[in-house]
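Good morning N.,

You mentioned wanting to compare the apo and holo forms, so I went ahead and generated the holo version with (2Z)-2-iminopentanedioic acid. This is what I fed in:
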Amino acid sequence: MSYVDEVYERIVRENPNEPEFHQAVKEVLDSLRPVVQANEEQFRRDALLERLVNPERQIKFRIPWIDDNGNVQVNTGYRVQFNSAIGPYKGGLRLHPSVNLGIIKFLGFEQIFKNSLTGLPIGGGKGGADFDPKGKSDREIMKFCQSFMTELSKYIGADTDVPAGDIGTGAREIGYMYGQYKRIRGLFEGVLTGKGLSYGGSLVRTEATGYGLLYITEEMLLHNGHDIKGKTVAVSGAGNVAIYAIEKAIQLGAKVVTCSDSNGWVYDPDGIDVAALKEIKEVKRQRLTEYKNYRPDSEYHEGKGVWSVKCDVAFPCATQNELTLDDAKLLVANGVTAVAEGANMPTTPDAVDYLQENNVYFLPGKAANAGGVATSALEMSQNSERLQWSFEKADSKLKSIMVDLFHRIDGAAKKYGMDGNYVAGANIAGFEKVVDAMNAQGIV
Ligand code: NDP
Ligand code: 2IT
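and this is what came out, ligand included:
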């Protein structure tokens, strides 16, 4: 059996009931076969792959808090500190009822390669809790965040581990967590990113994941003789990533016709009104059923369906495994040119294969959504120098990081004879830097 297969089998055996983690490991290891084959003896001797796929540390803890009715609630929190070879652990905090150790490990594993691809000095980590923010009052959110941070604060710090937002964790939650960290540790330091602008946040961090997604997609399309301008775009999700992907797509001259949340989806043939979407989701925290009140000619459909609409470019920006083989078939039948992942692992493996076999340009999340964490690293830099950059400076840095990132993954794919396979390119390019650092630092 090949070294890659041995390591994969062992991961499945030793980590049962973690299908998303297995999926993420399999995708990366499959891409790395040519690199592993070229270095098999040394990698085996140093147990390089075993060290890569096992987190340095995983922390699981209890989060007790009292709801508005005076009842005690208990949630489970996690922080997986996966790999610190190239910098302090860095990665978001997901608050969603579906969170479990396997989900956090898949996200932490992906984060290692994504962070490496940014070219910035950040290691990989991820955390979160099985808390459901939906329907909670502002006070309940605050009490949960304070209890969560009371425990998490023991394991993080500006030079050790720097969490940020993810599903269910936005500016409000980061604010409450930051306040509690400062209260407990007595440190005003860059321990979280995605902070408010009045207390150390970076301009462009709110927009960064969605904007970065469009910058890299634009670069990829230009490189292959296409243009985002004039394209019809389908987006899933209606959260942080989706909203700013839609905003930048419109700015670049595309027409975005869909968005979704976990209950249903919107089709707006005249183009999504991003100001209305922001008011519904960011200000009023309502469901997408409200969109029709702003745009009477739009349609709201219950359930899934964004990928059934005719489009040139698709941006899945909600959650893992939301774009399946059937969806990929619909997209191809409707003539899609490109799919770029705003979310982490939103496309199932068979759907990725189908898209690639049908010559659809496909950008994996660890490359396409890296603008968020890259701008988080810029926030860390600003905190260290105790300065705040202008919007223009942060945005132009973000753009150049995404353009460089595209050429890095394109180059890695070409180097191994897989021109245009950006999945392989991203995994290989992300891996190379981490492995170089791991080798230099010995068996740790
Ligand atoms: P938000 O919480 O802001 O928004 C999430 C959106 O996805 C909401 O519209 C939500 O709908 C929908 N969604 C979440 N879970 C599900 C589900 N199980 N089924 C259907 N829809 C769902 O999160 P973000 O926009 O920050 O994150 C979206 C994705 O992007 C995630 O995969 C995240 O890991 C990834 N990502 C985020 C980055 C960031 O900077 N925020 C950076 C890089 C990647 P509803 O409101 O109904 O739950
Ligand atoms: O998945 C991700 O890259 C994020 N949720 C952002 C992480 C970060 O540290 O900004």
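Residues 391-415 form the longest helix (25 residues).

Happy to go through it together on a call whenever suits you.

Best,
F.
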